[in-house]
Amino acid sequence: MATSMSILALGAESAGNFSVFKNGKIYLSKDYGDLLNDKNFQKFKTDILNYLKKNKIKPKIILTDLHPFYKTTDWGKELAKKFKVKHIQIQHHLAHIFSVYGEKTMIENCKLKIENFIGIACDGTGYGLDGKIWGGEIFKIKMQKSKCKIIERIGHLENQTMLGGELAIREPARMVISILSKLLPKEKVYPFIKKFYTKNEFEILHNQLKQNFNCQETSSTGRILDAVSVLLGFAKNQRKYKHEPIDSLEKNSTLPYRDIKPKVTGYELLTTPLFEYLIKNLSKDKKRLAATSQIYIAQGLYKIIKKSPITYFAGGIANNKIISAYLQSKGIFVSQKVPRGDAGISFGQIVYYISTNSRD
Length: 360
Hints:
Blueprint: E1 7-9, E2 19-22, E3 25-28, H1 38-54, E4 61-65, H2 71-83, E5 86-90, H3 92-105, E6 117-127, E7 133-144, E8 147-157, E9 160-163, H4 167-170, H5 173-180, H6 186-193, H7 199-211, E10 215-218, H8 221-231, H9 244-251, E11 264-265, E12 268-269, H10 272-280, H11 286-305, E13 311-314, H12 321-329, E14 333-334, H13 345-357
Parallel strand pairs: 1-4, 4-5, 6-13, 8-12, 13-14
Antiparallel strand pairs: 1-2, 2-3, 6-7, 7-8, 9-10, 11-12
Helix pairs in contact: 3-13, 5-6, 5-8, 8-9, 8-11, 11-12
């Protein structure tokens, strides 16, 4: 593609950032914080318009996340109409993967090295191509000549139920209920979460789960680790800031971890067996169980990729030291400059677009 083309990428939402591609270079902005905060969002929009004006840039392409309800998606549509240009939406986890791929392989003229690779993206929430909530994904990317030709989702974490949809993010004990309900009868689930809900509240939640009312399926790594943190007693049934339960889990982890083999069926890493193991061993050292849970995820992901020689790991969970250290020890590359979480999404959106539209 011509390096004279200018592109504006608006990132996702929870960690506001934008990137601009012009003259073969990508400019990545600072992290504006959560754009659900109106003050942050207004600052974000003002700075973008000022940057475009100051640098005399009229973008030819506007890139946003695939999520239909992000503020950045709506504003991207408005900007595309204003500039009379294309608006293209890019799947969240592909943007994560291409951000780390871009950091590792991009050369000065913004052409990318031609290599087939595997990408792992683990985070809390991303809108999937099937309409479900993704967050523990493995993709195979095949390059041909100077262009990405085939992208295939070859693996993911087992789908679990977000009881109450996004309420399961704010109240992670809801994830504990939905997962343990796969293993135990109702009366045996309640003791694990009784400090968070009354018996009547639990009855309502359990009925909601059984009726599949206001529930969403998710392959999110974040929701699994949230639930582990609550189950082991390191997190409360709340989230004061993004990743709080996972941070508590990592902070309270002690090596050596317990050696349990991750269960993989085809290309799906099963997470229900992890909880079966945890509830059978809750009387043991919970800090070792915390480390074990994170290693279970890392080992399971590695088992799926089958020792692929070129693999990249991205997403907010790539900031987890236990998981990322294990994968890095297996030769998997993790970003060192571009933010691993959503603050690097806009950069990845541009790299993805370049990769899928390059021409000799």
